[in-house]
TrEMBL record:
Listed InterPro entries: Aminoglycoside_PTrfase (IPR002575), Kinase-like_dom_sf (IPR011009)
Domain named Aminoglycoside phosphotransferase: residues: 114-230
SUPFAM superfamilies: Protein kinase-like (PK-like) (SSF56112)
Annotated protein name in UniProt: Aminoglycoside phosphotransferase domain-containing protein
Amino acid sequence: MHRPQPQQHKLPPGIVQALTERAAPGERLLEIRQVGTSSVVALTEHVAIRIARDSDTARTLIKRQQLVDALPEFSFALPRSAGPAIEQDGIVAVPTIRLRGKPHPAGSGDPKVLGALLDEIQATPVEPFSHLLAERHTFCGGPQWLDVMASQVLPLFSLAAQKIAQQILDQLSSYESDISSVDFVLSHGDLAGSNMLFEGSQVLGVLDWDLAALDDPAVDVACLAAWHGSQVIGQIAGDNTSLAARARLLRASDPLQVVAFDLLHGRSPESLAHTCS
């Protein structure tokens, strides 16, 4: 849910350059970006090379790229493979086609364009690649997401904030109890910020399918609202009041989900408690 920011990538000296030379022969390394907690992206003019820093991340990275390559053609571009995965000194790199376009300015967005994007993604049959999809709520704990937020995240907030957070958790518990009545669709899981590339109002490309899952359509509506503004929920949902209500609830739970993600990826409870205070 955040734009990747350049950071110290903590890889052996020279390894990124060496992998870039193998993955994109003849191209110059232009930039290195930290992505999440355990991978980086090396950028050349035409290739984006995702580099995993540990074996678990490497396996996940390869599986997620298999998903991207298995997805059908859309009206927008995907970061398809630009070559096979390569390995050097235990570090795995996956070269992908670098997409063009820029993130849309935050706080606005054409609901017709955003709605059409969702329609296109959600109409995709998942049977050919269902084995490559992530679990629901992988971002914040997977099947245990509510337990993680109730037992580990909630205590980190101030007492005043805990009352509001507990209300959200109670609603999420009811949401999960009733979710069997919802028809699941292909959900990207992180349609926000730099994961969507535009030229004007046109969507040119969609990046980062790592959280793609068979899930509630409201998940991606909530993600779009996080970036383009809460007004898009009603604009996209239209007369579907149930979809709008679920999206607003998921949007309200974003702060809890983000803290859960940070907690599960190595930030200490003490550090997070300071952040949540």
